[in-house]
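Tokens help. One example:
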Amino acid sequence: MAILHKNINNEADIHNPKWFQNANNGDYAFKNEKGQLESTDELLLPAALNFVDGSVAPPTTNTGDIYILSSGGSVNAGWGGVSLQDWVRYDGAAWNSITPQKGSMCYDKNADALKVFDGSAWAGLGSSFGKFGIADSSGAYTYYDDFQTALNAASSGDTVEMFTNVTVSSTSTLTLIDGVNINMNGYKYENTGSTNVNMVTLPSSATVIIYNGYFKRSGGTNLVTSNVTLDAFPSTNSKLYLRGVTFENTISTCLYIKGALVEGGTFIGNGASYSTLTDGPSTRMIGTTFIGTSSGHVGVNSTTLINCTSYANSGMAFYVGAGTLMNCVGESISGVGIRASTGNNILTNCTGASASNYGMRIGGNTSSIFTKAKGCIGFSSTNYGMYIENFAEVRNCAAHSSSLSGGFIKAGIIGTTHNKPRVYSSTFSSEGASGANADASVQIFNCDFISKYDNANGHGLTTSNVTGSSDPSILSGCTFQVENASANGFKNTIAGYETKIAACKFHGMTTSINDVNSNQMSNTPDTYNNILI
């Protein structure tokens, strides 16, 4: 008898088992519990090169290449007539597919992980069969492969949980939902897409809590108010509470916000203009940390910041215009620690520090629009601890420099226009120069000027860059202390720079006042020791 099934090359001559005609792609023969032959699903599929976005063209088209189309809104024409979630293999001319069954498994070579299909999405084995999930009242989870799908499926009061690191290349914004919280469980959500898109949006009138995670935008181009990681402009009356959450942008501005409250969180930006930009009334940030990795500033316009910290590379740690800072710290390597030189600004108990620029720069526009600083500290290693100009009002502050004068106090216009800064009960100190410099007409009351520079030029207070003034400066109730006896408490060598000096104290010098002009203080105290300055 001839052996019919030996060396048959023609597909049509091959005899197929009776179950084969109705079997699905990927099925195999199985001898069941009755000893009968039947087909069953092959749950372990051949390994895939990668799990990819089906809406994007195939990454490679080599014969035998295998992929899983695990994400995407639609199927790119390059894949042919396959479906999302399919296992596909290229035969040199076309892509052929196997539709996975619930429980199908495939090894992802790129992720070095075995993944399982839960009936709607692929996920790492042991990762609860989904990248995102929502628990019901009994604790049972419904799982989702897409972040926005999970958020949209949630109801107010629900928490969407994240079960693995997720990287997408998306042109869509992830929109937060009012009343829907997020627990990222320590995982990272990253968008690497090259198209400029805001990664996460906080809508108006929304209240959201996010726990323990990382949002990262690492694609697109460097822009100011778009391609940001968190877009909250405008987010009127919204509240975002961040608990152990970081937002990062490696290309552009990280946060753009107006009208919302943000509590907590860390924002890392790489924008050339701004690392973070806050704008508009009712914008409030509490207990937030900002990090600028490029030349961008943290721009604060008509915003209230409380207990916030900003670290900048070469930009200004805080650049304030008509803003309020309370208990904040701004530190920059080569930029200004805190600059509030225009607009109505209020700085309370803040610290500005810089390695090579001003620790703080404080000023104003007019006699009614200016910065008020109270209880603040300015420090610089190589520049002025505080640069105080124009209409600024400074009270109970301290300014220190390691190598330059502790402070520079300057009126913007010399003369009778009286756009002079006013300084009260503050301390200026230096280890490498005079305690402070004064320029033009300034008003200084009950302040301390201390130079620890053991040199004849280590004066308490000196003048500079003055060509003349018809409006004398005032030094009242101040204390001057120097390290070197040849230095002076107050020194002025500029003719025309006139000063009224009253009720001051001097320590450590041989000559207290060394002024080429006479003391313009002509009044004497009355019987109650009052004096008109």
